[in-house]
Amino acid sequence: MLACRYGHELVVELLLEHKANVRMRTELGWNSLHYAGRWGHFGVSRLIIKACAEIINDRTENGNLGVVRTTLMLACQYGYEDVVKLLLEHKADVMIFSDYGWNCFHYAARWGRFEVSKLIIESCVVIINIGTLGGDIINNSSSSSSTPQRSTPVVNVKNKTGLMLACENGHEQVVRLLLAHKADVMVYSETGWNCFHYAAESGHSEVSSLLIEEFPQLRDSTIRGAANCPPYDSGKTALMLASQFGKVEVVRTLFSHKADVMLRSEEGCDVLLYAARSDDLKVLELIIEAVVISVVDASSLWWQRTLIWASEIGHLSVVGMLLKYKIDVTLQFGDGHNCLHLAAKNGHFEFLEAILAKDTEGFVNSTTSAGETALMLAAQKGDVEVAKILLKYKASVLGCDEYGWNCLHFAASKGNAKLMLEILNHPDLEKLVDSKTKAGRTALILAAENGYADVVKLLIHKNCNELLCDDEGFSCLHVAAKHGHREVLSHLLSEEGDEDYWDKECLWVGDIESKVRRLDPKNLLLTSKRLKLMEVRSCFEQPVGTPHGGWH
């Protein structure tokens, strides 16, 4: 075996004269012919075959330690033309499959062995359109006997053909050879791909050009929804694949052949969305240029889809291209959202700045169908950076949605003190700080209800009116007591206030007092400067005929 491995022909000849056993195998299952064929030693291979021709189709045995292959497969993979010719002359079987489901031709095509591929085709032309075998392979029991060892597929489905392998790896010479021998370009693998898809995904522009020139029908062919096709691949074209993987030259080639930029895959994505995933600026620009030519209407659904996607993920490169080509970024989508709203929802402050820097008048205060501005959406998310950008570009703090909520109400309900501070530093503070929702709720009531002590303290510091009540008659103190927020109550009760606050009709201060007493009767209730109660009465002991002002 060592002599065969290193091609020492005279040594091999000597050992054979002394009856060396050519059938012996290593732990990997290799015999002497495998070594000679793998390293391309023609003379040694000829000696071994002459001594024992029966082993010519033996496969390496131990698949756990290496790929199970025949000598012909090894010689084809490494391109040893003379060894391949020798093996074919001695009837080596070209239709044996490895444990990966590959035959000798697949190995030759995969590694671009032109001369070897030609020899195999001349030996067995029908091998051209035979695919690698899908599924696991069940091997017949191997031995050192002279019986050819074939493999039987569990599922005999067509996977990759030699043409697909050559296209995937950019072997133009082999592709030309196969096309000259009428290889079928419209065969699809078990994952739904054809040879053109493999060439495009791998970025082989010469092979792609060769295929599309000879077979124009391949141009917009789509990946089929085969049984083993991933759902996100179904319906993709070669242009989508090339765009997704940033294959600029293939994209150029496809555009030169008028590939359709308007198609969408089954997951609903078009070519620009796939290009944006690769973040390749050259590909993005090529595609947007092509779309600008194809799509004259700047408010078309194509641009809407692109804007939605770019806004949701904050893709700066895409928005930069759209702005460059003067696409209308103020487009609204089905629910009234525009790109500002989506970007604000998803926290993409750099995206927002890129849009707003273009001086789109009034755009910063555009509303959704529910009346929400981008600033309100940022406040709902508690996103300080987004709010800063929006305020920088003169976002209104006074705008309200359909329920009368403004950005301060949303910020207070979320308890983000930093965001509150940004909003409360606005020149319109006086109009804003005590503004009410349609249900009569102030920012202070919302903060107190949710137990945000820092926000309550900040609002008090900004001179909000603590005596205001909502439409049900609840004040900030009532809602804090109702929900048991001790720290909030501490801030509210420790401040100087108007004792008339405690005597308003239907504000059942006894209920507040009882709740606070249960929390901390000594340290909180008795030391409060505010608890100068005019009347202590529980809402559960109210006089007959008095309206209920207690909790629900």
UniProtKB/TrEMBL annotation:
<dbReference type="InterPro" id="IPR002110">
    <property type="entry name" value="Ankyrin_rpt"/>
</dbReference>
<dbReference type="InterPro" id="IPR036770">
    <property type="entry name" value="Ankyrin_rpt-contain_sf"/>
</dbReference>
<feature type="repeat" description="ANK">
    <location>
        <begin position="472"/>
        <end position="504"/>
    </location>
</feature>
<keyword id="KW-0040">ANK repeat</keyword>
<dbReference type="GO" id="GO:0005737">
    <property type="term" value="C:cytoplasm"/>
</dbReference>
<feature type="repeat" description="ANK">
    <location>
        <begin position="1"/>
        <end position="27"/>
    </location>
</feature>
<dbReference type="Pfam" id="PF12796">
    <property type="entry name" value="Ank_2"/>
</dbReference>
<keyword id="KW-0677">Repeat</keyword>
<feature type="repeat" description="ANK">
    <location>
        <begin position="67"/>
        <end position="99"/>
    </location>
</feature>
<feature type="repeat" description="ANK">
    <location>
        <begin position="234"/>
        <end position="266"/>
    </location>
</feature>
<feature type="repeat" description="ANK">
    <location>
        <begin position="370"/>
        <end position="402"/>
    </location>
</feature>
<feature type="repeat" description="ANK">
    <location>
        <begin position="439"/>
        <end position="471"/>
    </location>
</feature>
<protein>
    <submittedName>
        <fullName>Uncharacterized protein</fullName>
    </submittedName>
</protein>
<feature type="repeat" description="ANK">
    <location>
        <begin position="158"/>
        <end position="190"/>
    </location>
</feature>
